[in-house]
Design brief:
Order of helices and strands: HEEHEHEEEEE
Number of helices: 3
Strand content: 25-35%
Oligomer: single chain
Largest sheet: 8 strands, mixed
Structural class: alpha+beta
Shape: globular
Helix content: 25-40%
Number of strands: 8
Length: 159
């Protein structure tokens, strides 16, 4: 391996370990239940539900609706951080999670109708049409992938 590549890999591992340590040592508020498998999210305005079986985007969207919610929409850095905290306890850092952003007509829209004003795209994203996932390989930034990919998901509903 080239020395520069080895250093880059080491730095990435250290960064991920730092993020994991921060999340485990109190950077994230403790989760508080709002009934069944739902947890408070967004200042107790919404509740979040982890979907821990891999689904396509449309399957995840349908599942969330069947549970009385929607796929997660994110409108601020705080909400994005909370989504990462909610996900961290349940999902291994190597998983990707569907959020409710979809590009089927040339622009991204939240499936719940929330205005699309905040983004946290990974460098070079968004690319083309597809659906958005929180990608923990890229420090919880967003990536665009084929909507038929199977991911875990995060549903939300009003508290």
């Amino acid at each position: 391996m080239y020395p520069a590549v080895g250093v880059a890999v080491l730095l990435l591992v250290c960064c991920l370990d730092t993020v994991r340590a921060d999340l485990e040592t109190g950077l994230c508020d403790p989760k508080e239940s709002c009934g069944d498998d739902w947890y408070y999210f967004d200042g107790k305005e919404r509740c979040g539900l982890y979907v821990m079986n891999p689904l396509t985007f449309s399957e995840a969207e349908k599942y969330c609706k069947e549970q009385g919610g929607e796929l997660l929409s994110i409108s601020s850095e705080k909400e994005d951080f909370e989504a990462s905290c909610l996900s961290f306890d349940v999902f291994d850092i190597s998983h990707q999670i569907w959020i409710g952003a979809e590009n089927s007509e040339g622009e991204f829209k939240w499936t719940d109708g929330t205005p699309f004003s905040y983004t946290y795209w990974y460098k070079g994203e968004p690319k083309g049409t597809g659906c958005a996932e929180i990608n923990f390989y890229h420090l919880a930034s967003w990536s665009v992938v084929d909507c038929s990919k199977k991911n875990f998901a995060l549903c939300t509903k009003k508290a």
